[in-house]
Amino acid sequence: MIDLSNQTALVTGGSRGIGRAISLRLAEAGARVLVHYGSNAAAADALVHEIRDRGGKADALKQDLAVPEGAHRLAEQVKALGLSRLDILVPNAGTAFMKPFEEETIEEFDRVYAVNVRAPFFLVQQLLPLLGDGSRVVFVSSVVARVAVEGLTAYSGTKGAIDVLVRSLAAYLGPRGIRFNAVAPGVIETDLAAFVQTDWGREMTLGMQALKRIGQPDDIADAVLFLASDLSRWVDGRTLEASGGARL
Predict the structure, then answer these.
(1) Which residue in 7, 14, 47, 116 is deepest, having the highest Cβ count within 10 Å?
(2) What average pLDDT does the structure give for the chain?
(3) 37 in helix, strand or coil?
(4) Distance CA 21, CA 55 (A)
(5) 99 and 151 in contact (C-beta within 8 Å)?
(6) 37, 113, 155, 172: which is the annotated catalytic residue?
(7) Under CATH, to which class is 8-191+218-239 assigned?
């Protein structure tokens, strides 16, 4: 069993979808989980209560990561808790939109890069005083960083940036004993991928995967748990694709 007792983890976008599954997995392993959310206080509070009811430790932190100072403000909230260190950081919060390249707007482009790239970048920077020897950072990339998907040009670029950021930070901060890796999901059944509830969506998804089922948030949470644990102690600067063998 993976034991994360006496460790603290921060999961951004941690109250819904993949983030919720990650928060639950880390809490089940014994970690105190700081559940960040952007706007849905009810979902965050429900998750915190669920973790506590199971005997775990959790707190909710609200912050809009789309604004320029969002990551800095969230880091200050974490520091204000009086932590001596942060053992696990999972910058999971993300946003996406799908439309033809010719129709993408500056506002949409700026928002998706702000949330998916700028916020994780500066969150790591601002939390460095709490990250040290043995800390693990697990980013969330995507299979679209490897394969082209029509209508996701800007979003795909953000996930490619995450893959490069993982390698760069691993090389730069490895001497401090901080490990950086990422998990790259394929299509996962969440409210952000509602199309898998339709017949055509399921057919399309299953058609591109070697494993013929629809991915679930727990599939990604388990991969994150591996990278957040000592089982992956010799894995650094890598992106682990968890996509059911998509587009092989």
Answers:
(1) 14
(2) 95
(3) strand
(4) 17
(5) yes
(6) 155
(7) alpha beta
